[in-house]
Amino acid sequence: MPTRRITDTEPWYRQFWPWMLIALPAAAVVACFITLWLALTHADPLVIKDSQYQQVRSELRAQAGDDAPGEDDG
Question: Would residue 74 count as lying in a domain?
């Protein structure tokens, strides 16, 4: 006569591996939101501001004189 095996298993939420498999993607989602928050709150400064760009551009045009091709030149 075959003997029956009685296994005393715990519910899934008391096992280690389901929580391990849930924790890895959950940690990635949390890290994603932290990265998004850091990117939105700590914006990189501009290398050069528009006013500085216009000033340098006009100085370069003044130095070059009429010999340099301009925007109007085809």
Answer: no
